[in-house]
Amino acid sequence: MVNCSVNFLAHAYLSFDRPDILAGNMISDFVKGKKKFGYTTGIQKGIALHRDIDAFTDEHPATRAGADLFRPVYRLYGPAFIDVTFDHFLANDPGIFTEESLFDFSQQVYQTLERQYAIFPEKFQGMFPYMKSQNWLFFYRQRSGIARSFEGLVRRSAWLTDSGPAFEIFESHYTRLQDLYNQFFPALKAYAAGRLLQLDGE
Asked: Where is the signal peptide (predicted)?
């Protein structure tokens, strides 16, 4: 599995409106080894929750089926492309967001993170201004935003050079991918809520 920080919307949403959990959830991929112990207990919980969410996602049959659509072209990066794709369907999930509420949610996330900016890892500090100014969380809603996210994933990868085929796969299998999201995300939300309760009790 290739580790790429791409599905920011899901991690933000599954922080359940808790600032410390949000901070840890968003920076987790940038915190290596024992460095997590330099953060508050709440942020450490967010880091742990992020990693548990990733593990659940990697093992879910719907995620695996979606990644398999990308795998013939992108091999180990298939799961990273499905993460971005599922953020698109989350952004368009009528049971969770309207266009207006997604925009408001994105602004709330940026404001919350900005208050904690000084403690973030350097790489996340460098990326965050772009996330905010380009409103990545909101533009997952649009197909053009997904195309740009795929381009960014390719730029950050070790050997990928072309995001075009990924977007073609996304477009040609759109209905199938929507169905897989519908199978997956309610289970993920329930798991994340339960896991956070466990972390609070530890």
From this structure: none
The radius of gyration computed from the CA coordinates of the chain, to the nearest angstrom, equals 16
* 10-residue mean pLDDT series, the chain (202 residues): 62 97 95 92 96 95 96 92 95 97 98 96 93 93 92 86 94 98 97 97 86
Q: What is the DSSP-derived secondary structure letter of residue 97? A: -
Report long-range pairs for 107-112 (Cβ below 8 Å, ≥24 apart).
109/12, 109/22, 109/137, 110/137, 112/19, 112/22, 112/23
Confidence (pLDDT) at 15? 97
φ/ψ region of 120 (left if φ > 0, alpha if ψ in -120 to 50, else beta) reads: beta
Q: What is the DSSP letter of 157?
A: S
CB under 8 A, 24+ apart: contacts of 178-182: 178/89, 180/62, 180/63, 180/65, 180/66, 180/86, 181/62, 181/66, 181/85, 181/86, 181/89, 181/90, 181/93, 182/89
Q: How far apart are CA 162 and CA 166, in angstroms?
A: 8
The dihedrals phi and psi of 121, each to the nearest 5 degrees, come to -60, 150
